[in-house]
């Protein structure tokens, strides 16, 4: 009984994360569910608004060549 139980537990331990990665990486599901839910929670101000955001450092502060605060 001990070996069968351990095989069952190991199967569950390996199957669950693999299944979650497989589900999370489905592009159709992501577009249909996640993006639609995001638009329901935070609707765009305009229909033609692009969802690209550029983050700039505060004025007077720059970034060095490595991307660190300078």
UniProtKB/TrEMBL annotation:
Subcellular location field: Membrane; Mitochondrion membrane
Biological processes annotated in GO: mitochondrial respiratory chain complex IV assembly
Keywords: Membrane, Mitochondrion, Transit peptide, Transmembrane, Transmembrane helix
InterPro entries: Pet100
A GO molecular-function annotation: unfolded protein binding
GO cellular component terms, semicolon-separated: mitochondrial inner membrane
UniProt cross-references to Pfam families, sorted A to Z: Pet100
Family per similarity comment: Belongs to the PET100 family.
Protein name: PET100 cytochrome c oxidase chaperone
Annotated organism of origin: Moschus moschiferus (Siberian musk deer)
Gene giving rise to this polypeptide: PET100
């Amino acid at each position: 009984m001990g070996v069968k139980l351990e095989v069952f537990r190991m199967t569950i331990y390996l199957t669950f994360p693999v299944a979650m990665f497989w589900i999370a990486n489905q592009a159709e599901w992501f577009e249909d569910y996640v993006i639609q839910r995001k638009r329901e929670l935070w609707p765009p101000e305009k229909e033609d608004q692009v969802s690209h955001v550029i983050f700039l450092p505060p004025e007077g502060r720059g970034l060095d060549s490595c991307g660190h605060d300078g």
